[in-house]
Predict the structure.
Amino acid sequence: MIITRSDRVWRATPFRILVHEMDEATTQRAIDRVKRICGFANLAPALLAGVFRSIRALGPDRDNRGRQCKTDVPLNLRPPGKSEPIFRNFMTFIKMGAKPEEMADSEGLVRTLNARMRDELRKGIDLGSLQMMSFMAPHANLMRRHLLRTLRKGPVSLGFGFLGTVIPGLTKLGATPIRRFYTMNAALSPPGITLQGHQYAGRMSLVLTHISSTVDDDLAAAFLGRIADELTGAFDGKPA
């Protein structure tokens, strides 16, 4: 985690929003890097690798560098080009994590997480999660108990989401030109932070929601800046 472990009460409190937008040239460098490492432009494992290494670098706990990082990674189940169903998610999750010894090398961690993600998909873990969520969806109390039990048994390092390219081709809302498009999600404490990334008009945006009493503004800004540097390869080939 990027915070101390003293707070064990899960609560929703007002949160702050911080955005880091990478310009088109910087976004392209990130895409070129992940193509070189993985063979194709799947930015999700590269972003997650940057997130995990940033937590490892900035987390204040004494044992932070010796701790495993983990989170749930959402996956879009809509076929390419489809937008239905409307007004509801059509998605599932797979669990992803990294051990301390896997996080020392930036490029190596991208390769590891990419391979781990492909392996989870081959096993059908995403479809199993979808079946579980479909079963629980009509039973709000059952879903709540399951989530709380899961969080207490194995707390995540942060809330995480990567949407890829959003609404390609949409440049206006009515007659109003769209200059920027942001997506975000709520934050719980612990862990106090949720990161959501997406691409729009050739630019990568990293949107952090954070609870300021847990993760202050300076730490949040440092966290986003470090992730952007990780994505563009600033630490490739350098010792951790």
